[in-house]
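Students often ask what a 'structure token' actually looks like in practice. Rather than answer in the abstract, let us consider Glucan biosynthesis protein, a protein of 506 residues. Its sequence is given first.
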Amino acid sequence: MHANRRELVAAFAALGLAPAIAGRAPAQAAPAGVKLGKPEPFSWDALQSRAESLARRPYRPQAKVEAAAAIDYDAVGTIRYRDDQTLAGGIRLFPLGRYAPNPVGIHIVEGGQARTVPFFPSLFTAEAGHAPPLGIAGFRAMTADGKSDWLAFQGASYFRTAGAQDQYGLSARGIAIDTGIDGREEFPAFTDFWIERTGAQSYTVHALLDGPSVTGAYRIESAKGAGGVEQRISAVLFFRRDVERLGIAPATSMFWYGEGNRAGGSDWRPEIHDSDGLALLTGAGERLWRPLVNPPRPTLDSFADTNPRGFGLLQRDRAFDHYQDDGAFYDRRANLWVQPQGDWGRGQVMLYAFPTASETVDNIVAFWNPADAPKAGQKRQFDYRLSWGSTDPTVGPAAAHAVDSWTGAAGRPGAEPTPGARKLVVDFIGSVLAGLDRQSGVTAEIGVSRGKLLTQAAYPVVGQANRWRVTADIAPEGQGPADVRLFLKRGDTALTETVLMPVFLP
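Now compare that with the structural description of the same chain:
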């Protein structure tokens, strides 16, 4: 796979960091092969010390190569890294372009020694009539056959993997700073990478992060297996100044429209999204599901917790015919599940969304926000695991899970709609519902904030095994959204995960 819209979106964000400054002129000599720099000692401790020292100095934005502005999205696709220059058993480099104009340092580590990869235009091939390569913007790790890639780093602190089905989708970030605060969001960048091959399809990537408010040392251990890609991440952060909203383990995705809000789309395809919900497994063991929506205006949801067991943006709907996309293959997009390691304490999972009218804009961000905001001069460390796969880590036999959700006109179908209200419909599937019928004492527990619950019902869907439907008419206050919390129960026992859903008036 080649660079796609994920790099575009990340690079657009990075452009807002600071005014352009001149970059170093690229070297012109052409090597016969990859000639690495002289070996120098490298260690995780040394990288942390470097990040700490950097935090004591004023922030200097990454250099930008001005000439890269002439290499647009189509032109950068004509610049290819040469197969015979592949590094560390499978690493190939991305060239600079209009949407990724900031050179990064690449270093190959072996036996505790790091050797720099110098840039030479001959590392790439460029089609005749197009601009020549100007520098290195990032890197990707190739599959064993060399025909595809499964791991990529490019743009600010963004990285991603192709999951279990060889299809890129959502992205991760090293950090998020003041996301959702108007005009204040920062996009710190990985400026240097140290790459060590640790197996046939595994690498440890160390990265140096730098930004106006924070520096950081990152160790990212990545391994590709049959079920997807597993990553173990350690982030050690040093703060130059106070940060109001710190985002740890952020994920960035796209939700244009789904089966429940087709009116928001203008395309012939039934659904278009990289992820369809935010899943949470709280420290107390509660399972939460927040279906994604394309909101009419920016929204920020917070889910308070202490020591969360996991959270992530998932693509639960994996039926090709629900998308009918034979090019982007939204049914194959990876899930991204975050598992905190150690004591993360109090805080909240935050979900920021803003409206989009196309699939080319990532309009969803989810992250952990610690309760105690960091102050200038502080050091923080966060360890966590990232799992990129096609299976849902939150689905189990103990509780049914939500599979579909819709909103529409409130009131009886076919009758005059109830003014000032919307109907919410949620379907659950799970073996825990097997054998239960209308006489089994199953009810829906529904709570509404910033609105009123007008009617509700819960019943098994005829002809569909282990599938139950909840319907509710909701009257939001003003234009909403009303925040709805619902689950199925039998007596005092919850039978399903808890669904959290915003309801807007049209």
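One point worth highlighting: The chain has two domains: 5-14+33-389, 401-503. Ask yourself how you might have guessed this from the sequence alone, and why that guess would often be unreliable.
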